[in-house]
Specification:
Blueprint (H helix, E strand, L loop, with lengths): L4 E6 L5 E8 L20 E8 L5 E4 L3 E3 L1
Antiparallel strand pairs: 1-2, 1-3, 3-4, 3-5
Length: about 70
């Protein structure tokens, strides 16, 4: 999904965090994405959401914990 934006979402609130936001600029191997998290991310359960070029939901990852 070239040009999709990948955002971090906090599960408990459903809030999409403003940072980090990563735009997929070129095809990557299936299942591979590396995102550097800022120090301001609080512990909790999160998931990644991909938004297509129109800002619509395109995909969602499994939930994961940040400690």
């Amino acid at each position: 999904m070239v040009r999709a934006k990948v955002v971090l979402v906090e599960k408990a609130s459903g809030q999409q965090l403003p940072d980090p936001v990563t735009t997929i600029a070129s095809p990557v191997p299936v299942g591979a994405l590396r995102i550097r998290l800022p120090d301001t991310i609080k512990p909790g359960t999160y998931f990644l959401k991909a938004l297509n070029g129109h800002g619509e939901d395109a995909a969602q990852s499994a939930e994961f914990e940040i400690g």
